[in-house]
Amino acid sequence: MEYESTRGDCRSIMSAEAIKKGISPDGGLFVPMEGISVSPGDIEAMATMNYRERAIKILAPYLSDFTPDEVTHCVESAYNANNFDHPAVAPLVVLNNKLSVLKLWHGPTCAFKDMALQILPHLLVTSMDKTGEKAGLLILVATSGDTGKAALEGFKDVPRTAVMVFYPAKGVSQVQKLQMITQEGGNVGVAAVRGNFDDTQSGVKDIFGSGVMGEKTAAQGFKFSSANSINWGRLAPQIVYYFSAYADLLGQKQINPGQAVNFVVPTGNFGNILAGFYAREMGLPINKLICAANENNVLTDFIRTGAYDRNRDFKKTVSPSMDILISSNLERLLFELTGHDAPRVREWMSRLKTAGRYNVDPGTAEKVGELFWSHFASDRETMLSIRQTYNRYNYVVDTHTAVGLNVYDKYRAGTGDDTPTVVLSTASPFKFNASVASALLGDEQTAGKSEFQLLQMLSAFSGLPIPQGLRNLEMRPVLHEKVADREEMPETVLSFVSRLIK
Question: pTM of the predicted model, to two decimals?
Answer without folding.
Answer: 0.93
